[in-house]
Amino acid sequence: MFCAVVSIGAICSTVNPIATAEEIGAQFADSEAVMLVTIPELIDKCSAAARLASTVRNIVVIGEADGAIPWRELFTHGDTSPAVFIDHAQDVAALPYSSGMSGVLPFFHIYGMVVVMGGAFRTQVPLLRRSTARR
Predict the structure, then answer these.
(1) pTM for the full model?
(2) How far apart (Å, rounded) are the C-alpha atoms in residues 43 and 38?
(3) d(Cα 93, Cα 100) in Å, to the nearest integer?
(4) Which pLDDT does position 32 carry in this prediction?
(5) Closest residue by Cα to residue 15 from 102, 104, 98
(6) Alpha helical stretches, state H, 2-99
(7) Tens digit of pLDDT for each residue in 75-87?
(8) Residue among 63, 72, 28 at smallest CA distance from 43
(9) Could you tell me the CA-to-CA distances from 94 to 7, 74, 104, 110 in Å, in that order?
(10) pLDDT tens, 90-104?
(11) DSSP, res 15
């Protein structure tokens, strides 16, 4: 998802899923987040955080949840990415927030992102897309 976000010129700011709605809302407000992507299990917390921030205009859920845009709807507008100009010397790609290091590198943390994504790219691990089709 990170690569998709930055490829359209947007900024990725990941969130610790065990943070409180108030902590997440403060991050949303500080980063001026306008869209968030979450999972059904975290929709209540993320919706509360979005209300606290007042900058979030869209909540996308990977799956289904009341009051959120289903992930699959993002792909109903064709398969051509928008044309954007990205100034690699000036534009921000990631805006990480951290409460400190615990010695663990979870994926939501910038170091975890670099290790997991960089390692996958370096070893040419194929990217897999989970199918939502019912069998």
Answers:
(1) 0.72
(2) 7
(3) 21
(4) 94
(5) 98
(6) 2-7, 21-31, 43-53
(7) 887 777 778 888 8
(8) 63
(9) 12, 21, 20, 8
(10) 888 888 887 655 555
(11) -
Token pair for residue 26? 């403060």
Query: Residue 96: which residues within 8 A CB-CB, separation 6 or more?
Result: 13, 14, 109, 110, 113
Q: C-alpha angle with apex 47: 17 to 22, nearest 5 degrees?
A: 60
Length of the chain: 135
pLDDT beneath 70: ranges in the chain: 99-113, 116, 126-135
Query: What single letter denotes the amino acid at residue 135?
Result: R
In this structure, what token pair is assigned to residue 99? 């409460």
Residue for token pair 């790609």: 93
CA distances from 17 to 33, 37, 42 (A): 16, 12, 8
